[in-house]
Design brief:
The chain has 286 residues and is of the alpha+beta class. It has 3 domains: 69 residues, 2-Layer Sandwich (Uridine Diphospho-n-acetylenolpyruvylglucosamine Reductase, domain 2); 121 residues, Uridine Diphospho-n-acetylenolpyruvylglucosamine Reductase, domain 3; 65 residues, UDP-N-acetylenolpyruvoylglucosamine reductase, C-terminal domain (Uridine Diphospho-n-acetylenolpyruvylglucosamine Reductase, domain 1). The chain is 27% helix and 28% strand. It contains 7 helices and 18 strands. Strands 6-7-13-11-12 form a 5-stranded antiparallel beta sheet. Strands 1-2-5-3 form a 4-stranded mixed beta sheet. It is globular and about 50 Å long. The protein starts with a strand and ends with a strand. The structure holds flavin-adenine dinucleotide. Flavin-adenine dinucleotide binds next to β3, α3, β9 and α4.
């Protein structure tokens, strides 16, 4: 019989995040079914224990001191159900898995996500976007855990904003997401994909969290930082990418401390020189 969850102890968060930084997580749970995730979340809540959800860890900076609670990793929650024009995807479905499914069934509307190293839960919680679209454009409803029961939240109730949603603000657990997609010719989907992938081709390669800061007041945070000549600036093993002012790369064994020091330099210099207050897009796991 399939196990309900895999449980591990003292796992380096550096192995669960794309930037490869972070101390030990006391406990990591990989639920295989949503029912198990719900049960385990309820147990943590009743006992007042700390917990956090993690998709692919692509927008997360984890503490050097680790996390004294349970990290729920959703990667095994990857059911995909297709009915009519809507597709219900488990929180742990990755963009790559979605892409393969949609190409097979000629579904369009999701192509803007191509190339983002993320899961549907993380993308929805963060209201991630690219190529002029965000998740809020295609989400029909989101199923979360409310008082131990799966509950559907329609799009209008999701409070999507710039790189945020009610799920992040209230620390709610996303189990699955229903997406509004439409049928299209395979050629049209492939053309859209190509266009979106081309726009990403300039992004720096290496271990990162994507963009560190949100764009603000119609200004690109990356261009503000580049203008100040900060590209290539390095603290420890954390480096501001040479070709993108909003990317921090872990070039060897960077620590959270290195990255936070670099973030302070970026934020303080932009504030001093332009009077603009940058706000982080990344999430801290502490
Ligand atoms: C190379 C690179 C390129 C990127 N490009 C883009 C881009 O083009 N556009 C963009 O918007 N972002 C981009 N990102 C950032 C990142 O991929 C997105 O923010 C994405 O939404 C994070 O998804 P994830 O599954 O990795 O979530 P994680 O990083 O694991 O988590 C992000 C947040 O969501 C929460 N979360 C995760 N799963 C759940 C769940 N099931 N229920 C509730 N909360 C949950 C976490 O607790 C955390 O607060 C990029 C990152 C990298 C490394």
């Amino acid at each position: 019989m399939e196990k309900n969850a895999i449980h591990l102890e003292n796992i380096p968060l550096s192995e669960l995040t794309t930037i490869g930084i972070g101390g030990l997580a006391k406990r990591v749970s990989y639920p295989m079914r949503t029912e198990t995730l719900i049960e385990e979340i309820q147990t943590c809540r009743k006992r007042g224990e700390k917990y956090v959800l993690l998709g692919n860890g692509s927008n997360v900076l984890a503490s050097d001191h680790g996390f004294q609670g349970t990290v729920f990793v959703t990667k095994h929650l990857r059911d995909i159900n297709f009915q009519g024009e809507s597709l219900t995807v488990g929180a742990g479905v990755t963009v790559g898995q979605l892409m393969r499914f949609c190409l097979e069934y000629s579904l369009s509307g999701w192509e803007f996500m191509a190339g983002i190293p993320a899961t549907m839960g993380g993308l929805t919680a963060m209201n991630a976007g690219a190529c002029g679209c965000t998740m809020s454009d295609i989400v029909q409803c989101v199923t979360i855990v409310e008082q131990g029961v799966p509950t559907e939240i329609p799009r209008e109730g999701c409070d999507f904003g710039q790189k945020t949603s009610r799920f992040l603000q209230n620390r709610e657990v996303i189990l699955s997401v229903r997406l509004n997609l439409h049928r299209a010719e395979r050629k049209e989907i492939e053309d859209n994909l190509m266009r979106c992938m081309q726009r990403r081709s300039h992004l720096p390669k290496g271990r990162s969290m994507g963009c560190v800061f949100q764009n603000t007041a119609g200004r690109s945070a990356g261009s503000l930082i580049s203008c100040l000549g900060l590209c290539g600036f390095r603290i420890g093993d954390a480096l501001i990418a040479h070709t993108h002012g909003n990317f921090i790369l872990n070039v060897a064994h960077a620590t959270e401390r290195d990255v936070c020091a670099l973030i302070d330099v970026m934020r303080n210099t932009v504030l001093r020189e332009f009077g603009i207050e940058l706000k982080e897009e990344i999430r801290y796991l502490r």
